[in-house]
Amino acid sequence: MSIKQKLTVSGVVIFSALILGYGVSSREALDTQVSQEPGSIKSAQTESRPASLTATPTSADGKILEEIKISLEKKLPGIEIIAVEPSPLEGFYQAFYGDELLYVTADGRFLFTGNLLELAKERPINHSQVAIMAMDKKRAPARAEAIAQVSESDMVVFKAEEEKYVVTVFTDVDCAYCRKLHREIPQLNSGGVTVRYMAYPRAGIGSDAYRKLVSVWCADDKTAAMDDAKLKRKFGQKSCKNPIADQFKMTRSLSLSGTPAIILSTGEIVGGYLPAAQLINVLSEKLADSPDSSKNTGQSGR
């Protein structure tokens, strides 16, 4: 359950949705916001903050951030706050929970979720999405390292003959967009993209989705079984010792919340489904300067 559901703040979410169209929300625009040099929209985000929030952090500031984290986890049982930072909105801090963001006062009394938009001179700035993408970039190396510890023998791998890139995809066979992505595996392989599947039964361990994934991972030919499951809706009955539960637990530590979750060799999350041609373009742009783009995440034959 998302933090939005836990807090039942649908009014805020609806308002955010109504004005989101005026924000900067495309993948390309957000990448630009996060990566541009001073003078860019990213700089505008920093410049828009009160002076008290842009000053050099002190030990006292760190204590406040830790107290906010402890307070939120106490008041909202079952959630884990990844990090707390000053926000561009005076009087509020931004707390990261999974792949979501919430805003809270220092005393923990007031809290809201949704997109924080600033009506800047050039165009609106979506501070929430900029912050989430920046946090994702910070966490990417640790995510890549975690996936690198998983043997490819515990994945279902569709390998490109002339491999240029490797993506790791956390998947659920009942997910419509996962099936749509799978139909484009031949195009991805032809474009030099090796696709490695890890299991993410969205309904949880022991569910029907879990048992379907077990039948795929336990098949004599895992790639053929994945084709049958996603393209023909045919499932075997095999069971064996398998990594499904461990991979499901990993989705929590990696802060994944949807399928398909496409992760680059650098550990960066691309997001959900992208058409094959668009995904190949994203890989080409993001990994252009990475000579080991096909080798950074989980070596073959581990």
UniProtKB/TrEMBL annotation:
Protein name: Thiol:disulfide interchange protein
Entry function: Required for disulfide bond formation in some periplasmic proteins. Acts by transferring its disulfide bond to other proteins and is reduced in the process.
Disordered, as annotated region: 36-56
Chief location bin: periplasm
InterPro entries per record: DiS-bond_Isoase_DsbC/G (IPR033954), DiS-bond_isomerase_DsbC/G_N (IPR018950), DiS-bond_isomerase_DsbC/G_N_sf (IPR009094), Thiol:disulfide_interchange (IPR051470), Thioredoxin-like_fold (IPR012336), Thioredoxin-like_sf (IPR036249)
Coiled-coil blocks: none
Pfam families, per the entry: DsbC_N, Thioredoxin_2
